[in-house]
Amino acid sequence: MKKNKNINRREFLKVTGVAAAATTATIYGCSPRKKGSGALGPVPTDKMTYKYVPSLGDNVSLLGYGCMRWPTMPNPDGPGEIVNQEAVNELVDYAIAHGVNFFDTAPGYVRGLSEQATGIALKRHPREKFFIATKMSNPTTPDFDASVAIYRNSFERLQVDYIDYYFLHNIGTLGPRGLETRFLNNGLLDFLLKERESGRIRHLGWSFHGVAEGFDQALAMHEKVHWDFVMIQMNYSDWKYARGMNVNADYLYAELAKRNIPILIMEPLLGGRLSNLPVHIVSRLKEKNPEGSAASWAFRFAGSFDGVFTVLSGMTYMEHLQDNIRTYSPLVPLTEEQKEFLYETAELMLQYPIIPCTDCRYCMPCPYGIDIPGILLHYNKCVNDGNIPRSSADENYRKARRAFLVSYSRSVEKIRQADHCIACRQCIEDCPQRINIPAELQKIDKFIEQLKQETL
Q: Which of 15, 200, 374, 417 is the most buried (most CB within 10 A)?
């Protein structure tokens, strides 16, 4: 569970009140954010690819719904935002009607609103129509009773009597120390194992971000604990070129596969970066498959590996849901030649110095109201669009300068921009990618000032 930020309520509402209401309409990057994915054609209702895993006994849709990015709307009763429940219901109904049966949430998603919204939407469907996954998102130094309360609250918010897939959330960020302090020393893992025995948890596993030592430690417990599944971040960029604190996905996948541990995939689009690619990269993909979207390449990659039984996507828009359903209805697995093509594509992408933000929003709310993901994603989009001039001598300097500054002012309200960061560093601990967020914000702010003063 996300820890509470220390901030005076009046100051926080002053900073974020009106600005938060505009979040769902935010323009990211140097051109308006596009909802559509580029794929055309009908959306099949009866061709979804399912993976049956004997050890689990479940027939799971290869496309899983990640509930981290539910659509939001301005709060009619005050400042800030609430989940747009009507939109969530529509997305869930459409997903189930088209074969999606796996829904993944967590207590901290959508600022603590995701579990309740997911539960409301799913309660309208027969329980046997879906599998629900949620997580033990306890803090770094948890109290046993408080952690158990988090677990119990998930049942109430989701309105279920049992949870199909329960995760030890975010193993690895703190290395071996994280597993020990959060789950072992306090007896919490023993409690969850008993809950699995009782049937209130059908399958118990963990999700991984962080350093290899944390992954290896949790994996070494498999013979004793018998993990039912593990979730890893895997995409064709992270396969051999994981950035920040992440571990290359080829290692993670191989270690799980040789133990026959069923695998869930998160971040198949790397926080949307593999669907918002530089123009020449998109052209490269289109040459190979003119009808397919950039996102479809990434989803086909993630779904083409043995042992992977579902690939999660946080689909805020209907267009994204439809595109992903098409990709997996049915899945056309990548050939080895196509995988090599994507590995080469990942190498080409290394020349673009993007910030490895996946828009998970764990860093939010910033105690000073800064729109951290909005700023980082805007910068990444401008990198992809070629609107990051290196100097005033660049041929397209004027055009790039204007595109960056204009879109920045539209994307991020002035009071929430990078120049308000005081480097309190609270966000670093919460970031699964372990980005040095204050340092990145200061670099961006310096770059913006150079553009404004034309001193680049």
A: 374
> Do residues 132 and 122 touch, judged by C-beta distance below 8 A?
yes
| DSSP summary character for residue 181 | I
Strand 50-53 with 58-61, pairing: antiparallel
Q: Does residue 30 surpass a pLDDT of 70?
A: no
Q: What percent of the chain has pLDDT over 70?
A: 91
Mean pLDDT of 49-74: 97
Helix axes 318-327, 85-97, angle to 10 degrees: 20
CB 39 within 8 A of CB 291: yes
- Whether residue 375 contacts residue 444, with contact meaning beta carbons closer than 8 Å, is answered with yes
The b-or-e profile of 68-97 (16+ CB within 10 A means b, else e) is bbbbbebeeeebbbbbbbebbeebbebbbe
* Residue 101, CA distances (Å) to 94, 125, 274, 447 in order: 11, 11, 25, 45
pLDDT at 36 over 70: no
The Cα 226–Cα 441 span in angstroms is 42
Give the pLDDT confidence of 342-398 residue by residue, as tens digits: 999 999 888 766 787 878 888 888 988 999 989 988 888 887 777 887 788 888 889
pLDDT of 262 reads 98
Give the helix ranges, DSSP H, for 235-386: 238-241, 249-257, 279-288, 294-303, 318-327, 336-349, 372-384
User: What average pLDDT does the structure give for the chain?
Assistant: 88
Check whether the bond before 79 is cis (ω within 30° of 0). Answer: no
Average pLDDT over residues 153-180: 93
**What span, in angstroms and rounded, lies between the C-alpha atoms of 73 and 61?**
29
Close Cβ partners of 80 (under 8 Å, ≥ 6 residues apart): 13, 16, 17, 20, 21
Beta carbons of 85 and 79 less than 8 angstroms apart: no
What is the structure's pLDDT at 40? Answer: 59
What are 81's two structure tokens?
């935002």
Look up residue 3 and give its DSSP letter.
P
CA distance linking residue 345 with residue 274, whole number of Å: 11
